[in-house]
Amino acid sequence: IAGGLLLGLSVFLRERYEAFSAILFSGAMAAFYFTTYGAFDFYSLLSRPVAFGMMVLLTVFTVMTSLKYQRQEISVLALVGAYAIPFLVGGDSGNVLALFSYIFLINCGILFISFRKDWEWLKGLASGFSFLILLSWLFIRYDGEEWFAAALGFPVLFFVQFTVAVTGFRLLRKKELYEFDYILLSFLSLFAYLCVVIAFKDQEESDVYAWVTLAAALVHGLM
Questions:
Q1: Contacts of 24 (CB under 8 A, 6+ apart)
Q2: Exposure pattern of 169-179 as b/e (b: 16+ CB <10 Å)?
Q3: Distance CA 193, CA 218 (A)
Q4: Per the CB 3.0–4.6 Å rule, which of 119, 149, 216, 222 could disulfide with 72?
Q5: 3-state SS string over 44-68?
Q6: Contact yes or no for 179/154 (Cβ under 8 A)
């Protein structure tokens, strides 16, 4: 009810107080997120698939509204909610492929937004969340055998996604890259390289790290 009242008030005040309306909308979405999570986890009023689906719909709705309001802050709220969903209602199934496939799809949404809006914070936070989750899994749970393909493939996928996201808006409009873009690309390269190196941690070949480093050098040379 509180979320619905905030949402209705944000719609009512949008024409006269757009910035304040955006704040009210963000509060409404936060209320809906936490209410859904509480209904699932604290009181078992919602099943896991229903809670997951509701949060995904909330995220999509929030992203579309952020484009309508032209407010990066709302998109950041949707981003935080999107990356939190698997950990709030995903359970402890250990399905790594499902987790990173879901993050890949979220990143596709970020890629879509990046071609329409040059929102630096959104791209920076999205890439940070993606590689933070990936590195955490690699350091804590990765055993070097069962999920080797995922450990090798997803860092490359994320690197390609965010490289295109960072440079796409500028290239389409024939603009030069900003200093922030170069910094973000450097961090993307570092994180992707680190993830791939960790993926090979249990490989017996002694020169595997040299080949990984050479491959990274060739990719950046072509870029």
A1: 6, 7, 9, 10, 13
A2: beeeeeeeeee
A3: 13
A4: 119
A5: CCCCHHHHHHHHHHHHHHHHHHHHH
A6: no
d(CA 197, CA 209): 7
Average pLDDT by stretches of 10, the chain with 223 residues: 94 90 89 88 88 88 87 84 80 73 87 85 91 91 80 92 88 84 90 88 68 77 71
Supply the angle between the helices 18-41 and 72-89 in degrees, to the nearest 10: 0
Q: For residues 162 and 107, what is the distance between their CA atoms, to the nearest angstrom? A: 8
CB 163 within 8 Å of CB 114: no
One-letter amino acid identity for 198?
A: I
Residues 99 and 40: their CA atoms lie apart, in Å, by 19
Residue reference for tokens 């024939």: 174
Residue 82's alpha-carbon distances to 2, 105, 137, 180, 207, in angstroms, are: 22, 10, 18, 24, 39
Q: Return contacts of 56-60, CB within 8 angstroms, 24+ apart.
A: 56/82, 56/85, 58/29, 58/32, 58/33, 59/85, 59/106
pLDDT at 161: 92
* Cα distance between residue 74 and residue 76, in whole Å: 5
Query: Does residue 110 contact residue 120 with C-beta atoms inside 8 Å?
Result: no
Amino acid identity at 12: F
